[in-house]
Amino acid sequence: MNLKKNIIILALFSLFINPEAILAQGLVSFYETNDKFNPNYLISDIDLTDYNALTLEQIKQFVIAKGGTLAIYIDPAANLPAYWIIWQTSQEFKINPKFILAMLQKEQGLVTDPAPTPNQYDWAVGYSCYGGLCLEIYRGFAKQVRAMADKFINGYLADLNALGKYKDNYFCTFTKWCVNDLKISQDAQTIVPQNKATAALYTYNPYRGGTLTDNGKVGANYNFWKIWNSWFAALVLRPSGSLLKAAGDAKVYLIAGDTKRPFANFSAFITRYNPADILTVAQAELDQYQAGREIKFAQYSLLKDEAGSVFLAVDDSLRKIDSPEVFRTLGFNPEEVGQVTGADLAGISFGPVITLAASYPTGALIQDASNGGVYYVQSGIKYPIFAKEIIKVNYPGRKIISVHPKELDKYPKGDAILFKDGTLVKAKDNPQVYVVAARKKLPIADEASFISRGYDWSKIVETSAAAVEILPTGETLQVLDLSLLKINIPTSTPIFMPTYTPTSTATSTPIN
Q1: Whose CB among 19, 87, 249, 436 lies 3.0–4.6 Å from 423's, allowing a Cys bridge?
Q2: pLDDT in tens, 398-433
């Protein structure tokens, strides 16, 4: 009888350590997929450790808004409110309070559940729980949250910061979830963690998730990713190309992804953009962005470096003018050349050299005299323009030169010119409004979403359907919720609440 039992246990254990066997038996499939989900990159390392992401008050307001009971729950052992425990834990262990909130939701639904059971609070983040069994010493909300934070920061990340600790030349956790190393999850999925935060999450819960096994649905890290992205990944949603300034400050920034690029001077700004397009926002919003490279020079400015080379500033790069002959032939004025140093040019990319073959290096609007078609010709390439509104928006005040078709035939055709980033645009026979960003059109969900972003109805450009449809469609912009903006918090602990003191000094290592 014991022999039979041991054989069964051994068979089950072999499935546990060999997920491929599960897959081979057809026990794993998917109950949900998402094209945007990358199981190899769940959140960034900064997302895990940004412990100042929310203030104490913001945590409280967040959980109130989500409808659960975390705003009123008092941990009976610690005698502290749940939201206070979340904040204090984030400060003590230097872990993102948003991460804690996402884990609470993923494991027990505590952020949104209006009537959770005591058991949900007792095992709030599933710490030390595996196979339906949990270690009693970790029962309780505060113990759960603190132990989880401690394990991620002082366990998993500490291990992941030690090259070769568990596998030669890899950054790994003790269960050998390693950065850039293939491993099979326990729901039989091939995972290659691309960063430390992802490896840590799979160490805590070694399932990809979104999968069906013989035991039912497995949410796991897929659910964590869904929660994180729906709540936190889009806090900063100004599309690339937005122009922002803080109230009371003259400094203007160009938003590029998650960075803000300051303009060094008025000339650098005015030769590229219209002051009417600047949005004034709270300083706290600007603080969300990383500082990007400064935009130093006016568009089409002429610059001479210490070696005597002359460059033309075009968009975000410098193009060297091949020779004095090219400089003269193109009609540049020597008096407009500014002297710069190597330090001034640091970090700027260099485009193709301007030669005599590079027609219209500063660009020109050229019209086919036979059919009225307009192209933007720059450096010997013609780029078709599909609508007059694009000309008005992208090249205000520029003169259109009419030429014989044979003149245009000399130039190869490039991609069509699109509306510049930041343009609000709609087709004339369609009510949907978009904002252009990074060569895509982002649908604005509704009126509330439009207003929340500070957009002006009068600036919507109506154009042809073709000029809109040529833009690939990007993600839909919903209401911009600025209530969770990261702001500086006090460095001292407020005196009106006590500090949590653990009731147990047990240091047992949990299964997780």
Answers
A1: 436
A2: 999 999 999 999 999 999 999 998 999 999 999 999
pLDDT of residue 231: 85
Q: How far apart are CA 214 and CA 28, in angstroms?
A: 7
Angle at 219 between CA 76 and CA 40, to 5 degrees: 115
Amino acid 325: pLDDT:
92
Mapping DSSP to helix (H, G, I), strand (E, B) and coil, where does residue 191 land?
A: strand
Q: Is the pLDDT of residue 302 over 80?
A: yes
At residue 246, the pLDDT reads 92
pLDDT of residue 485: 56
pLDDT at 352: 86
Q: Which of 317, 319, 313 is nearest to 348 (CA)?
A: 317
Instruction: Calculate the CA dihedral of residues 401, 406, 410, 416 and round it to 10 degrees.
Output: 60
Which residue stretches of 215-275 are H helix?
Answer: 220-231, 266-270
375 vs 384: CA distance, rounded Å:
4
Total residues found in the chain within this entry: 512
Instruction: Give the number of other Cβ atoms within 10 Å of residue 344's Cβ.
Output: 16
pLDDT tens readout for residues 123-134 = 999 999 987 899
Largest CA distance in the chain: 99
| The pair of three-digit structure tokens given for residue 476, joined into one six-digit string | 């839909």
Q: Which residue has the higher pLDDT, 463 or 17?
A: 463
- Whether 433 and 457 have beta carbons less than 8 Å apart is answered as no
Give just the sign of the alpha carbon dihedral 277, 282, 285, 291.
Answer: positive
Q: How far apart are CA 28 and CA 22, in angstroms?
A: 7
Query: Cα separation of 215 and 211, whole Å?
Result: 10
Nearest CA-CA partner of 105 in 70, 54, 75, 143:
70
φ/ψ region of 194 (left if φ > 0, alpha if ψ in -120 to 50, else beta) reads alpha
- Measured CA distances, 94 to 40, 196, 498 (Å): 24, 15, 19
Structure tokens at 152: 């991620």
Tell me how far CA of residue 26 lies from CA of 16, 21, 107, 209, in angstroms.
15, 9, 27, 16
Distance between CA 103 and CA 126 in Å, rounded?
A: 9
CB of 318 within 8 A of CB of 312?
yes
Q: Is 255 exposed, middle or buried (0-12, 13-18, 19+ CB in 10 A)?
A: buried
pTM, entire model: 0.53
CA 97, CA 90: separation in Å to the nearest integer? 5
